[in-house]
Amino acid sequence: MASVKEILTRKPMSTTNRLTVPAGAARPAAPVSPALGPYHLNQMTFCKDFNARTQKYKPDTPMSVTITAFKDKTFEFTVKSPSVSWYLKKAAGIDSGSSRPGHVVASVLTPQHIYEIAKIKQSDPYCRYMSLEAISISIIGAANTMGIKVPEELD
């Protein structure tokens, strides 16, 4: 529970925005400008910080960003790794999932692929305390809904 001092020193929040921005390609244009502009936040500072944080990813990798704007015209942001569906499509080498999941198989991935995706997703703030097994089970569920088959064992 937060102490009285922490509650009194918190900045009043203005808004929270969620964006998807390509890694290393944030510019003071759409989608950044419409999200930050109405709150008079420094777009160039965001772009420089975001591009620095996402250097390790390949260019044009879609990154999920949550921006918290404060009333004193400052902001904080957190960057999450790309979505599970993006990783699954890249690993399977497909552009989209099956139009009839459960009936038509779009592709097949090995448990090794699932494990590698789970290791990457474990670094996300909301998955930090989950086990790799739990994350893997969630990823297998997402793969099934996309029509991507994951065999129980390696052949």
Describe this structure in words.
The model has no long low-confidence stretch (mean pLDDT 84). With 155 residues, the chain is of the alpha+beta class. The strands form 2 sheets. Strands 1-2-3 form a 3-stranded antiparallel beta sheet. The protein is 36% helix and 19% strand. It has 6 helices and 5 strands, in the order αβααββαβααβ.
CATH class of the largest domain, anyone? Alpha Beta
Can you tell me the CATH topology of the largest domain?
A: Ribosomal protein L11, N-terminal domain
Series of secondary-structure elements, N-terminal to C-terminal: HEHHEEHEHHE
Strand count, sense and barrel status of the largest sheet are:
3 strands, antiparallel
Compact summary:
The chain is of the alpha+beta class. The protein is about 35% helix and about 20% strand.
Question: What structural keywords apply?
Answer:
19% strand; elongated; 155 residues; three-stranded antiparallel sheet; alpha+beta; 2 domains; Arc Repressor Mutant, subunit A; Ribosomal protein L11, N-terminal domain
Task: Produce the secondary structure layout.
Elements: H1 4-9, E1 13-22, H2 32-36, H3 43-53, E2 62-70, E3 75-80, H4 84-92, E4 107-108, H5 111-121, H6 132-145, E5 148-149
Parallel strand pairs: 4-5
Antiparallel strand pairs: 1-2, 2-3
